[in-house]
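User: structure tokens for this one?
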Amino acid sequence: MGLKGSLNEYELDLLRQRSVEARREKARRGELLVTAPVGYLKGEEQHWEKDPDRRVQEAVLLVFRKFLELGSIRQTLLWFLEHGLQFPAYTRQSETCWKRPSYATIYRILTNPVYGGAYAYGKTEHTLRYENGVPHRGIRRKPREQWLALLPNSHEGYVSWEQFQQIQQAIAENVRGSEPSGAVQVGAALLAGLLRCRRCGRKLTVLYTGNHYGVLRYACHRGWLDSEQPRCIAFGGMSVDETIAKEVLRVVQPAGVEAAVLAGEEEAHKQDDVLDAWRRDLEAARYASQRAQKQYDAADPQNRLVADELERRWNQALQRVQEIELCIEQHVHGQGKVTTPTRKEFDDLAAKLETVWNFPDTDIRLKKRIVRTLIHEVVVDVDPSAGEVILVIHWKGGVHTELRLPRRRRGQNSAHTSKEIIDTVRVLVRICSDEVIAGVLNRNGLLTGHGNRWTQERVASLRVITRFLVTMPTSVRRKDG
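Assistant:
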């Protein structure tokens, strides 16, 4: 009996191993289809096929379009929630239901290789760990190199495999860490995540100081926070951002007109994604109401137990149609009449690129994305002896540019009069009156630290602050009173 039992156990174990290996071989061939993801169905030829429902297909495509436009998973989710759009999901009976999307739903859509036209299997594995002698089971995601099977171009995808790879790279760069620059935020720091300390190699941290936290500073103190090492460098960020912005505008200015023309053509052919999604929902809701009406008409009026329930379902379907029609009407009225700019208007806008960039209502996230498109990183250092901030811009094309800008000393601010104007007044004050000096400065286009024109009173105030009065001639001093 013992020998027969051992042989039976061996046979069962052998059959189990054979079934597992057969399953693995089927997965390596790309024929093992387990659970259909949203937007796909199991085909007859052992591969994934797109869901024939056009509403489901457009919903999945909308996720990829919005991610490429907004640049992060969270912003994509917030866009869906802001406009009240629903997303499809499959029930256990393989039926399609529509519900409010979640972060996990959007994340699975954007990171699943099946949407890039690739078959993938073995992406996760079961783990076992012990805490105080108690076993805990879990699931761990494996690196791509350890997957059992990855077969690109095995079926029709919603995006190409190359575009799917670019999306994975963008998601990886959005993760905050030592190397990635992180996702684009709404803060005023234009170079957040792009500055690297030349002394220790760490990324610089963004700080907002001042009474209303409106003063921007960049500091390298990760070594002090992590291991109590001495702080490296710190400097004001407003002048650095302005300098980098001027370099970016200088680089993109030659292509501004071409970009404006392309933007005009894209705007002319652009579709309203929200309105299209609502119209698809309205079409589906009208179909559901018509189906409920047919079921109600086919029922026996004498059987009130069935007729009442079918009437209630019909009323719910009609109410859903009215709600969607109201949402479409509010959306259309909220948008108003949108006029497409002409080519001449786009050309004028491209010629004034710096004005558009410095406009207060320009989206800071858009400017950050432009900067990150052109610049890989900026290596920065401070020269205390020369009082300068050294910037080395590493462009995406492999070119490096070194810039040196004066470092703002203690007590200085952005409204200080420039050193060139002070030197000019230092020379003119010996032979000219304050009124004449103000006229000379205005004719040369020189402004005060606050951007105002010079007057006799402002020149006199500058002389008093910089102690130029003692160098003035006696005749000029009497003339000024």
